[in-house]
Amino acid sequence: NPYPTGEERARINAAFEKLAATIQTKETEQGVMMFARDAGFNDAVDAAVNAAMKGEKPARQNVKIGTTPPALIAAGIPSGEMQTSPSVLAKVVFDHGVPKSVLKKVPDLLENPVMVFDSDTVAGSYAVVTNEFVNGKPLLVIVSPEQTRGGVTFNFVPSLYPKDHLVAIQK
């Protein structure tokens, strides 16, 4: 019998169930587009914040957010995986005052941005305005496209923070 059975089949089925749970779809003008959110993002947020609270150095490995959502691709950000780092996650909470619960919404917030601009401070980067507010200020997510580390290319989120003035976003 060339087909897997027993324990091997159970492992394969579990892997397919995990894959199916992370794939999302969205209707676009071109048809149905598939994308995925990384199932470990919330755990990575918890780990980064907990490590920072204990005074530990953040892990060096990047954190996967998911694939680039269709709305960001339409705005000019290349398709591919989106990542950030544990140190960015900790800084967002402790330096920028973004609650951990809001930080965990980032994959969903990137799915439906209010506006996407070319960054006026870092050439080639984008400023994504979300519909989430922190202390009455809109949450801004910065995306640096096509970063390469260790031979892997991805779109990197180097920062996110509540923006003081909407007028400043539009400059």
Main features:
6-stranded mixed sheet, two-stranded antiparallel sheet, globular, alpha+beta
Q: What portion of residues is helical?
A: 25-40%
Helix/sheet category? alpha+beta
SSE string, helices as H and strands as E: HEEHEHEHHHEEEEH
Beta-strand content bin: 25-35%
* Nearest-integer average pLDDT: 85
Widest sheet: strand order? 3-4-8-7-6-5
Over all CA atoms, what is the radius of gyration? 18 Å
**N-to-C CA distance:** 66 Å
How would a textbook summarize the main sheet? 6 strands, mixed
Total DSSP E strands: 8
Helix count equals 7
Low-confidence stretches: none
The coarse silhouette is globular
Please, could you describe this protein's structure?
The protein is of the alpha+beta class. It is built from seven helices and eight strands; from the N terminus they run H-E-E-H-E-H-E-H-H-H-E-E-E-E-H. It has helices spanning 6-22, 41-53, 70-74, 86-94, 100-103, 106-111, 166-170; strands at 23-28, 31-36, 63-67, 81-84, 115-118, 126-134, 137-149, 152-162. Strands 3-4-8-7-6-5 form a six-stranded mixed β-sheet. The protein is globular.
